[in-house]
Amino acid sequence: MALADQAPLGARMTTAAAPGRSWIERIPAGWWITAFILLALPLVANNFWLFQVMGWSFILGMIAVSLTFLAGYGGMVSLLQMSIAGLAGYMVAILGPSGTTSISLGLAWWIVLPAAFLVAAIAATLFGALAVRTEGIYTIMITLAIAAAFFYFTRQNYTIFNGYSGFNLVLPPRLFGVNWRDPVPFYYLCLGCATLCYGAVVYISRSPFGLALQGVRDNPRRMAALGFNVTAHRVAAHALASVFASTGGILLVWQNAQIAPGTIGIPAAIDVLVVAVIGGMRRPLGAFVGAFIYVILQVFSPDVLGAFGFSAERFKLIIGIGFLAVVLFSPDGVLGLWDRWRARTARRVDPLTGVPR
């Protein structure tokens, strides 16, 4: 009997029907429900939830998805993503208008934004070229060293980065007569950018470059023997990841209306890694799930801890315990727990009739 004939009847019917379905029909119902909730959220949520909670979640998710792209598809764990995001944010403050008029050039947004992405991509390419020549813990250490060096450089340089004070009153341009820093427009701006970043990662992962990058991750020697330039693919991955991190960095500057060295400090770099691990590094969705969990704990845990007489500074302890729990019990993050629960549930259902066993 052929292998296809050995499959359950329901699976064969699904497989046979799949080619005739449009791409819209192939999207799971859960995605449509999630999209509807996110689009309709401003109708029921207040400005705090839209601007602070959801906006910050999308921004942090975009920075974390750049790490997910590098680690999940390229096998490269980098602690540089917050630095790349901060560099793009600094470029917006330096080249565009801000409250620090003695340094900011006040150029138009259509010059500032491409320049910010370009500078961040060049930096990511140069730093990536150094990092890809190492492996494992050495990659983490060299990216951490570069992130620390960039932090202290911005803190001590007053000519370009305005030192410890940084830049304030860095506001988004008023396009189409809309103030994009208002809670509802800013929410939709972040939602749109997060959707584009997520879709880009999914598309790239299925493209010839993405498949080659995953081959480099799994067996670099074999890919080199097949004629692929392993180093070039890894460096290009760093350059592509900078686009996602830069998008989050620019939105973060607009959300806070300022940027300072503390934005790109070592704790912030570690937080991006924690977010990616909590959500799950194997899929880009995990970055946004982990970001939402992190932001919820960051925002509301001080109130909960205060109610029990603990200091709000214990928030990091809760994050650390959660991080250890995820690493120990679900290396694939929260999405891994969800997958295991679905698999366990599916085993309890008859594949032919759909009736629980």
From TrEMBL:
Localization annotation: Cell membrane
Key word Membrane present: yes
Record-annotated membrane-spanning stretches: 29-49, 56-73, 107-130, 136-154, 186-205, 226-253, 259-278, 285-305, 317-338
Keywords: Cell membrane, Membrane, Transmembrane, Transmembrane helix
Any one cellular-component term (Gene Ontology): plasma membrane
Membrane topology: Multi-pass membrane protein
Pfam families: BPD_transp_2
Protein name: Branched-chain amino acid ABC transporter permease
GO molecular function, one term: branched-chain amino acid transmembrane transporter activity
Superkingdom of this protein's organism: Bacteria
